[in-house]
């Protein structure tokens, strides 16, 4: 992504990129260049701070649970390269991080670390390497969750004594200001450690990947100033007790600096470990397939036409006069379809049946409009999905629904149909 114009463009950058080492020449000031006055060396063990010792203890105990991940896949070559004698395909390599979550050797990482980009949707070749080992071991996908930007992989050939699970913490009890220790492979520099604090416990950002490569779902993320960079993706964020509190996933970075590669600006984001823990049983049961975010069974009934085709949108895109004329609320998700056998169908939600076209789009009228989910405003499918993202089977969601001039609350219970697993790619 390239920035245009003057100034610095800040963007959210995924961290699973190839290794790049940056070296900055830092000039020394006159005071720094002057030789320091002779003094007796400090007693280092005695001068060591309690916080410093804690970091050393956490790293020495739990860093062996960190996993360095490499991927390799064949991708179509740029057609312009072929004009100058290049081949039709090239090998693309990537690096990322992960960590053991159990004695069986399951490795949690980001989806974008192991997702393929080649033709035919083929999974890239994945290898992993643990601390103290020179050889890499082939790994395979256990389950993928693109909407959460999470994946579970396993290396069957890895020796059991090399599997060192890192305990999972409790992200719901985090407090701003707590210590945060990030482990991973920034720019391919494997088994690196940085330290900072938890800067925010509930920063709302798009995480993961929607359908057809679309934008991820808005979710709560942990913000930290512990330095994380490309290659840190999928690595653990630990607290002072050595428990995993998050999975490093994105940075807020100046774009286009240093050759266009996103770099740490002291604002990094991690997926809360509670989200990953809730998802773990489904990933383990996916048999190499894709785990979807919860779905109550409704589809949008308002769409605008784009170059890529119809795009579902919320009522906020329509003019106030147009909404008044159609008898619609100021904002909300128009229900265009209710899938049979789903929680929405059992709750009696109604899809629109009167199709009206307008310049640049189409709307289905006569059905329900969802305006809130668990009290939070809804104006698009992404807003509804954000309210469902952390829910499990058997839990409920309360929708505020407008039908004509009546407004009511509808309580839906998520069941097995809300958590369909797609096998294969």
UniProtKB/TrEMBL annotation:
A Pfam family per the record: PDZ_2
Boundaries of every PDZ domain copy: 305-405
Listed transmembrane segments: none
Record keywords, A-Z: Hydrolase, Protease
Molecular function per GO: serine-type endopeptidase activity
GO biological process assignments: proteolysis
Family as reported in the entry's similarity comment: Belongs to the peptidase S1C family.
Protein name, per record: Peptidase S1
Species: Deinococcus soli
């Amino acid at each position: 992504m390239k920035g245009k114009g003057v100034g610095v463009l800040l963007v959210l950058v995924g961290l699973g990129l190839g290794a790049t080492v940056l070296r900055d020449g830092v000039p020394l000031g006159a005071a720094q260049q002057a030789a320091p006055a002779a003094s007796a060396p400090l007693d280092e063990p005695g001068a060591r701070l309690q916080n410093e010792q804690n970091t050393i203890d956490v790293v020495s105990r739990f860093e062996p649970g960190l996993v360095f991940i490499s991927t390799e896949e064949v991708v179509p070559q740029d057609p312009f390269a072929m004009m100058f004698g290049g081949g039709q395909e090239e090998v693309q390599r990537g690096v990322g991080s992960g960590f053991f979550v159990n004695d069986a050797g399951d490795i949690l990482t980001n989806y974008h670390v192991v997702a393929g980009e080649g033709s035919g949707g083929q999974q890239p070749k994945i290898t992993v390497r643990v601390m103290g080992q020179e050889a890499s071991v082939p790994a395979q996908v256990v389950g993928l969750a693109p909407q959460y930007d999470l994946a579970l992989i396993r290396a069957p050939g890895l020796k059991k004594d090399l599997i060192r699970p890192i305990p999972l913490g409790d992200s719901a009890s985090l407090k701003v200001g707590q210590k945060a220790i990030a482990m991973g492979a920034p720019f391919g520099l494997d088994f690196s450690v940085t330290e900072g604090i938890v800067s925010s416990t509930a920063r709302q950002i798009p995480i993961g990947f929607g359908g057809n490569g679309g934008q991820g779902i808005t979710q709560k993320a942990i913000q930290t100033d512990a330095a994380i960079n490309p290659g840190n993706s999928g690595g653990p964020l630990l607290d002072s007790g050595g428990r995993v509190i998050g999975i490093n996933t994105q940075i807020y970075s100046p774009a286009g600096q240093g050759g266009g590669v996103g770099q740490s600006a002291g604002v990094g984001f991690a997926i809360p470990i509670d989200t990953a823990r809730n998802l773990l049983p489904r990933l383990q049961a996916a048999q190499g397939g894709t785990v979807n975010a919860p779905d109550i069974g409704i589809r949008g009934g308002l769409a605008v036409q784009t170059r890529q085709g119809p795009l579902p949108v919320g009522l906020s895109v329509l003019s106030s006069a147009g909404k008044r004329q159609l008898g619609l609320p100021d904002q909300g998700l128009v229900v265009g379809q209710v899938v049979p056998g789903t929680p929405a169908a059992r709750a009696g939600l109604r899809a629109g049946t009167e199709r009206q076209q307008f310049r640049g789009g189409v709307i289905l009228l006569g059905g329900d409009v969802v305006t809130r989910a668990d009290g939070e405003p809804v104006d698009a499918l992404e807003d509804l999905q954000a309210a469902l993202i952390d829910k499990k089977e058997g839990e409920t969601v309360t929708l505020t629904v407008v039908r004509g001039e009546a407004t009511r609350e509808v309580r839906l219970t998520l069941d097995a149909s809300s958590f369909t697993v797609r096998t294969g790619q």
